[in-house]
Amino acid sequence: MRLIIPAALCGLAACTALPQASPTPAGSPLPPQRIETELNAHNQQIGQLQQQVAELRSQVSELQQRQQQLAQLLDARAASRRSTSHSSAEPAAAPAENLQEQAYQQALQLYRSGLYSQALQQLRFAERSGSGGRTEQNALFLLMQSHEKLRNCESVILTGQRFATRFTANPKAAEALYSVGNCQWGMQQRDIARVTWRKLIQTYPNSPAARRASQRIQNNR
């Protein structure tokens, strides 16, 4: 007896005999669409970071400009304070100079009137070291002359030497040295007087005081 196998069963058997599809390996390359998506995302992140860097640079530049402005403001305020301090000190110095000039003028009148002791009283400020201005120089020289009129030779020597040392460029320095030498001669310090006069002649060779000193040395050899 012949068996008749249905066609459906034959088709099922044929299907089961076909090979199954193998899975995609783990290390296989990404599809192009996914690569493009990730690349676009990375480019977007890079663009955002570049924008942040640009913003930070702008902020740094603004901070540096602000710092320079603040530094200039501090310098300007410091200069203003120094200027204010200097200008406020000037009015205090001016009255002192005016008082010294007034005292000198009074002493000069007393000296010309022969009141040498009273002139000394007006010239006490010249005994202190000050700014070395014109009034102080004139007052110190007049102080020496007043002592010379009163024959206070020790004071003449001290004052004259001080004047000649401090104010070497003053034309009266030669006269001060001559007066110092003259007092030294009168106090029997003749060798010292010759040294003083030789210094006068060497330092101020063309001055009238140098000619008088040279004559004194020649006459007293």
Automatic annotation (TrEMBL):
Q: Where is this region: Disordered?
A: 74-97
Q: Which PROSITE patterns match?
A: PROKAR_LIPOPROTEIN (PS51257)
Span of the secretion signal?
1-21
Record keyword Coiled coil present = yes
* Gene3D superfamilies in alphabetical order: Tetratricopeptide repeat domain
Please report the stretch or stretches of sequence annotated as the Outer membrane lipoprotein BamD-like domain.
Answer: 100-219
The organism named in the record is Eikenella corrodens
Q: Which Pfam families match?
A: YfiO
Fetch the InterPro entries from UniProt.
BamD-like, TPR-like_helical_dom_sf
Keywords for this entry? Coiled coil, Signal
Q: Indicate the segments annotated as coiled coil, or none if absent.
A: 39-73
Q: Any stretches that span the bilayer, and where are they?
A: none
Q: Where is the composition biased (Low complexity)?
A: 85-97
**Protein name in the entry:** Outer membrane lipoprotein BamD-like domain-containing protein
